[in-house]
Amino acid sequence: MTDGMLVQLVQGNGSFGKYSCVIIDEAHERTIPTDLLLALLKRALPLFPDLKVVIMSATPNVDIFLNYFGQGSHLPLSGREHPVEIRYLQEATPDYASLALHTAQHIHQTTGDGDILVFMPSTAEIEDACGQLRSATWGLEVLPLYSHLPKAEQQRASKVCMTCHGPEESVQSRLGWHRSGRSQHR
């Protein structure tokens, strides 16, 4: 679940009592829901001593979080960085869906490697775009990817994923993403 969803749930029932562990990813991004969740957790930890909190952050300054909570330990993890190429359109297009699908087809036909992440504004448009791309492209597994999709279906996503804004909120990305499309909020 996202940090915003957990904030709403905890504010609704006022308790972290039913949770044994809370993991906060990308804490360095300092979003309002993340900061609220950190504040709620700090207040809740004395009341729920068995509650574990894991904070993941790309910031080298982990002391910010250690000092804020007054306890804890730092477990540094190293990983491989993978090159990411981001290209932007020179101007907006009203037919973003067709352009995103055309771009995904082009990447598949010209590179043949890596996964492709296509952003769509809603689950309905994700499902529609998946159907269109499946019909138009041979040899490419096209899978939807959004937070309320069953976990097994999320884990199947491997080659082209249609997603709403912020897939990092609910799923782990794989190696070698190509991004196509744009996220639109309504």
TrEMBL record:
Gene Ontology molecular function terms on file = ATP binding; helicase activity; hydrolase activity; RNA binding
Which PROSITE patterns does the entry mention? Answer: DEAH_ATP_HELICASE (PS00690), HELICASE_ATP_BIND_1 (PS51192)
Q: Which UniProt keywords apply?
A: ATP-binding, Helicase, Hydrolase, Nucleotide-binding
Limits of the Helicase ATP-binding domain = 1-78
- InterPro entries cross-referenced by the UniProt entry: DNA/RNA_helicase_DEAH_CS, Helicase_ATP-bd, P-loop_NTPase
Q: Which family does it belong to?
A: Belongs to the DEAD box helicase family. DEAH subfamily.
PANTHER family to which the protein is assigned, alphabetical: ATP-DEPENDENT RNA HELICASE (PTHR18934), ATP-DEPENDENT RNA HELICASE DHX37-RELATED (PTHR18934:SF99)
Q: What name does the UniProt record give this protein? A: Helicase ATP-binding domain-containing protein
Q: What is the lineage of its organism?
A: Eukaryota, Fungi, Dikarya, Ascomycota, Pezizomycotina
